[in-house]
Amino acid sequence: MDKAEISKGGSARTRVKDDGRPVLLGELENYVGFHLRLAQSASFKAFRRLTGESDLRPGWFAVLAIIHNNPGITPMALSRASGRDKSTITPVLRELLREELVRRSANPADKRSYALFLTPHGEEKLAHLAACAAEHDRELDEIVGDKKQELIRLLRRIVAVLD
Amino acid sequence: MDKAEISKGGSARTRVKDDGRPVLLGELENYVGFHLRLAQSASFKAFRRLTGESDLRPGWFAVLAIIHNNPGITPMALSRASGRDKSTITPVLRELLREELVRRSANPADKRSYALFLTPHGEEKLAHLAACAAEHDRELDEIVGDKKQELIRLLRRIVAVLD
DNA sequence: TCAAACTGGTTTGATACAAAACTAAGTTGA
DNA sequence: TCAACTTAGTTTTGTATCAAACCAGTTTGA
After folding, report:
1. How far apart are CA A6 and CA A23, in angstroms?
2. Identity of the residue in B26, B77, B139 whose CB atom sits nearest the CB atom of A69
3. Residue B112 sits in the same domain as residue B146
4. Does residue A53 share a domain with residue A11?
5. Is residue A73 domain-shared with residue A7, that is, in the same domain?
6. Residue B37 domain boundaries
7. Dihedral, CA atoms, A41, A46, A127, A123, nearest 10 degrees?
8. pTM here?
9. Cβ of B83 near strand C (distance < 7 A)
10. Which of A154, B7, B79, B131 is 20 to 30 A from B64, comparing alpha carbons?
């Protein structure tokens, strides 16, 4: 229908697709944090659309992929690598264990912890999710074009410094 | 003792700060979506650290700023501009009205809707939040350097295309 | 060697969000 | 003009997330 009405060449202006009249974002317009939130939210929604109908939660992908790449990893290391709090990982793992996508084995050297592995079934599901993720990333590639590496570099720096 | 001796110079490997041993992210390493999530989460946490002790919720900032820049805006337009669902806006506004940071006036032309304005008290609080946000954005500026405009352009494109 | 400090993982409590169902008000077209 | 659609805002419900408190096992240092 319409969007991008933009206007007054001044500074802060932005189209907000919907109905004609643009909304002024002011300072927000130039805040990296604000756009980060919008982009992350848009990307997440798009990814969920892709995995959509299947019984796979989008949040499972990173977890499965990391276990796949690091068989025997502990929940703590997984939590750090996936950027989620350890207390967030617990219920995810419980679900994955219940669904038998993941298996765990005790670590005799440290009885508090345990080692995680994908089951063959988990590998299958991961393959499917990875296909969705690859598809999704192709869309993103399309959008960011040859700036992709630069973009990732910047995002990584933000994490490294702020986190 | 340990596991994850991994390394094996293959391709995608990454250190996850904490304890020496690197965790392999594999394909994840090159997924824009993954890094978007990490960066957004890091940025959000940093912002919350800044506003931290005050009684201001970080989520209020965008809402207050947008109302400030668009006096009389409706909740729906606000929801779209701030990138949050209308059902998410409702409780935020309820709180802001209760705290008397925002005031609303009926729209005689459409009885379903209403117009939003900041109260003087709201303007004050916004000023404080804006100071935190500016501070936060300075940190981000530091990190992204002269690539900032390029970064924002890319993030905006992601939103425009995927959303 | 053993008490204190620390660490891995779980539980609990609170917040932020979206989606769907709903209500009330506005718009449209035959 | 009025029934059928559409839109603005709210309510309800479900999920993801973090932080803090907690427990059990491990490390440390006097």
Report:
1. 9
2. B26
3. yes
4. no
5. no
6. 31-162
7. 40
8. 0.85
9. yes
10. A154
